[in-house]
Specification:
Radius of gyration: 17 Å
Number of strands: 5
Number of helices: 2
Number of domains: 1
Structural class: alpha+beta
Largest sheet: 5 strands, mixed
CATH architecture: Roll
CATH topology: Ubiquitin-like (UB roll)
Shape: globular
CATH superfamily: Beta-grasp domain
Strand order of the largest sheet: 2-1-5-3-4
């Protein structure tokens, strides 16, 4: 089956064609982990996995036509996905607070 793969940041080095987005053939019944291994990528580098528009884990089964986005750790080393998710939520709250603080008030 074919899936569309998007590699973020420095994960592009594991692309079979040098592009950050490409179609890739994997066996029926493959999981995200199988895709990562087939690309030759160390598993800990795929710290954030998105399948379609949903956060997924390495055991997520893939289907024909899925779009898989792999994102590396944000700052040095690998981190557990739950910790990364908490950090994204915290960053979002800070960004929202800053946006509110920077929007000029109309008088």
């Amino acid at each position: 089956m074919r899936v569309k793969v998007e590699l973020q940041a420095y994960l592009e080095q594991y692309s079979p064609n040098g592009q950050d987005t490409f179609d890739y053939e994997i066996p029926d019944g493959a999981r995200v982990k199988d895709l990562v291994v087939k690309l030759g990528m160390p598993e800990e580098l795929a710290s954030v996995i998105i399948v379609g528009n949903t956060n997924a884990d390495p055991s997520h089964p893939l289907q024909e036509g899925d779009r898989v986005t792999l994102i590396p750790p944000l700052a040095g080393g690998a981190a557990e996905p739950s910790r990364l998710k908490r950090n994204f939520v915290r960053f979002g709250k800070v960004a929202a607070w800053l946006a509110g603080a920077l929007i000029p008030c109309s008088s």
